[in-house]
C-alpha cells in the first residue's frame, strides 16, 4: 500500500498553484523515499496538461516553471532507479527561456539536475545541441555546459592569471560595440574580441542605455557582465578571448572529443572528473 505522505508529495508536485520551490522539494523528497511504486506516477506526471503560452507575465513564465518541474521529475526517477526518460533533458534545455531568474532559472536547474544524476549521456546530447541550427538551442546548450563545473572546461572560469585583469577601470558607454571595444583598450591588449564577435558587432550594435563603470576590476566585467551580454569567454595564451556562443559551441565539441571518453562521476561530490592518470 502506498504511503499517504508520498501520495501527498506527488499531488503537491503536480499542483501548479504551489510555489516552484515547494514542488521541487516535494519531488526531491519523493525520490529519496526509495518507494519505487511511485515510478509510474512520476512518468504519468510528465504528461500532465501545460499552461497556455499567453499566461506569461513580466517576471513569471508558467511554461518555464513546468519545464523546471520536469527536470526534477527526471531526477526523482533516477533516484528511484529509472533512467528511461533522460532523453528529455536536452529537449528541455532547447526549449528553455530566460524569463525565470535566480534560483528558478531553467538552465541553472538543468545543470544541477545533470550533476545530481551523474550520467554522461545528457552531457553528450547537450554538446551535440551546441551545434544546432537554432541560436537559442546552442546558446542554452553552452550556458548549461558552462555551469556543470566540468574538468578542463574550455570556457569561463577565473581570468586572474591574465595580465591587467586586476586593473580597475572607469568609463561610461551607451552602445554595445563601444563597451566591448573599450574593454580591449582598457586591458592594454589582454582582452581580445574573437572574429565572431567582430562580425556580430558590425551588424548588431545596439543601445545599452547609459552604462557607467566606476573603479571596477576588469576581471569582474569579464566574469560577471560578459555572460549577461550573451557572449562567452576563455583564456588562451595569456589573453582573455571574448567569443560568441556559436564559437563557444565549437570549443565544447572539441573538448568532448578530447575528454568525453575519460570522464567519470564522483557521486559523493556530485561532480564529473577525469579518470586518475589523465
Radius of gyration: 21 Å
Low confidence ranges = none
Query: Helicity level, as a percent range?
Result: 40-55%
Strand order of the largest sheet: 2-5-4
The number of distinct helices, counting runs of at least 4 residues, comes to 12
Distance between the termini: 49 Å
The general outline is globular
Sheet with the most strands, sense and barrel status: 3 strands, mixed
- Global mean pLDDT: 94
Structural class given helices, strands, pairing?
alpha+beta
| Strand fraction | 5-15%
For the secondary structure, the number of strands is: 7
SSE order in H/E notation?
Answer: HHHHHHHHEHEHEHEEHEE
How would you summarize what this structure contains?
The protein has 278 residues and is α+β, with helices and mostly antiparallel strands. 49% of the residues lie in helices and 14% in strands. It has twelve helices and seven strands.
What would you note in describing this structure?
The chain contains twelve helices and seven strands. α2 packs parallel to α4, α4 packs parallel to α6 (106-117) and α8 packs across α12. The protein has a three-stranded mixed β-sheet with strand order 2-5-4. The chain is α+β, with helices and mostly antiparallel strands and 278 residues long.
Summarize this structure as a short list of keywords or feature phrases.
278 residues, alpha+beta, Phage tail protein beta-alpha-beta fold, two-stranded antiparallel ribbon, 7 strands
Helix-strand blueprint:
Blueprint: H1 4-14, H2 20-32, H3 39-45, H4 62-79, H5 88-95, H6 106-117, H7 120-129, H8 135-146, E1 168-175, H9 176-186, E2 191-193, H10 195-204, E3 207-217, H11 218-225, E4 232-236, E5 239-243, H12 245-259, E6 263-266, E7 271-274
Helix pairs in contact: 1-2, 2-4, 3-4, 4-5, 4-6, 5-7, 5-8, 6-8, 7-8, 8-12
Amino acid at each position: 500500500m502506498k504511503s499517504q505522505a508520498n501520495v501527498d508529495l506527488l499531488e503537491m508536485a503536480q499542483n501548479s498553484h504551489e510555489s516552484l520551490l515547494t514542488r521541487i522539494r516535494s519531488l526531491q523528497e519523493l525520490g529519496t523515499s526509495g518507494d519505487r511504486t511511485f515510478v509510474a506516477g512520476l512518468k504519468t506526471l510528465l504528461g500532465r496538461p501545460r499552461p497556455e503560452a499567453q499566461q506569461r507575465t513580466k517576471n513569471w513564465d508558467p511554461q518555464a516553471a513546468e519545464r523546471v518541474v520536469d527536470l526534477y521529475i527526471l531526477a526523482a526517477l533516477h533516484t528511484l532507479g529509472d533512467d528511461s526518460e533522460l532523453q528529455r533533458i536536452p529537449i528541455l534545455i532547447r526549449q528553455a527561456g530566460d524569463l525565470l531568474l535566480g534560483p528558478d532559472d531553467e538552465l541553472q536547474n538543468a545543470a544541477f539536475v545533470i550533476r545530481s544524476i551523474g550520467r554522461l549521456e545528457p552531457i553528450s546530447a547537450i554538446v551535440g545541441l551546441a551545434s544546432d541550427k537554432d541560436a537559442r538551442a546552442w546558446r542554452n546548450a553552452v550556458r548549461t555546459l558552462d555551469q556543470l563545473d566540468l574538468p578542463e572546461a574550455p570556457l569561463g572560469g577565473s581570468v586572474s592569471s591574465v595580465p591587467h585583469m586586476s586593473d580597475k577601470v572607469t568609463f561610461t558607454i551607451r552602445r554595445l560595440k563601444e563597451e566591448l571595444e573599450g574593454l580591449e583598450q582598457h586591458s592594454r591588449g589582454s582582452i581580445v574580441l574573437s572574429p565572431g564577435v567582430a562580425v556580430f558587432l558590425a551588424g548588431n550594435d545596439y543601445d545599452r542605455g547609459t552604462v557607467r563603470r566606476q573603479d571596477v576590476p576588469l576581471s569582474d566585467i569579464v566574469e560577471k557582465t560578459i555572460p549577461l551580454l550573451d557572449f562567452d569567454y576563455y583564456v588562451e595564451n595569456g589573453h582573455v578571448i571574448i567569443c560568441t556562443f556559436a564559437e563557444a559551441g565549437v570549443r565544447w565539441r572539441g573538448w568532448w572529443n578530447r575528454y568525453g571518453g575519460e570522464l567519470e562521476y564522483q557521486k559523493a561530490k556530485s561532480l564529473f572528473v577525469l579518470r586518475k592518470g589523465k
